[in-house]
Design goal:
It is a single chain. The protein has a single domain, classed as Hypothetical protein af1432 (Orthogonal Bundle). Helix content is 70%, strand content 0%. The chain is mainly α.
Length: 193
């Protein structure tokens, strides 16, 4: 399926609020891709499908992930907020015929991040965070940083997520900590060079 066909399908299957969010991520991802010399078409497609599984029931997400032979840990498998990334990656491949591994990885990790994220993964992670309908304390600072330095924007996104979860006394998924620590080490290494 092409971009327009997928967009029409998503408009039918997502809630109005989720669909508006997706369009915001598409717009932001394209701008970030152009800013940092990434492929804007890949960024648009990854952004378009990043939440395609977000509103599915948890058992449906679990089936999608298992259909790809993926077996995330129990915490992710039982948490739709985290599982929708891997499930979305599986759905994008199965339903929409997307086979580009860069796009599928960006969808898979758009919520948690991971160590060693590729440029497109960072763009989708950040675009999801800063799209225009997002309103939370500190979002403007993250938006500003996103267009100055991609890595620092991602780091600010991690910091915001971790701070929020800490303030709510919520579990912080280890991949998020690992991604954060990787960004810190990469930043320190670049400064020392």
């Amino acid at each position: 399926m092409n971009f327009e066909e997928i967009q029409k399908d998503l408009e039918k299957h997502l809630s109005h609020a989720r669909y508006i969010h997706v369009l915001g991520v598409v717009s932001e991802a394209e701008k970030l891709a152009l800013q940092y010399g990434a492929d804007p078409e890949k960024a648009r497609m990854a952004a378009l499908v990043h939440d395609c599984a977000k509103e599915l029931p948890l058992p449906d997400m679990q089936k999608l992930v298992h259909s790809r032979g993926w077996y995330p840990d129990d915490y992710v498998m039982n948490n739709g907020s985290l599982l929708h990334g891997p499930a979305g990656s599986a759905l994008a491949a199965k339903k929409y015929g997307i086979q580009d591994s860069d796009i599928l990885m960006a969808v898979y990790y758009h919520t948690t991040g991971r160590p060693g994220m590729a440029q497109l993964e960072k763009i989708i992670f950040l675009a999801d965070y800063i799209e225009p309908s997002r309103h939370f304390p500190g979002v403007e600072e993250i938006r500003n940083e996103a267009y100055k330095n991609l890595d620092q924007g991602v780091l600010k996104g991690y910091e915001s997520t971790i701070s929020h979860l800490l303030s709510q006394h919520q579990y912080i998924y280890e991949m998020t900590f690992k991604g954060y620590n990787d960004m810190i080490l990469s930043s320190a290494k670049r400064k020392s060079e």
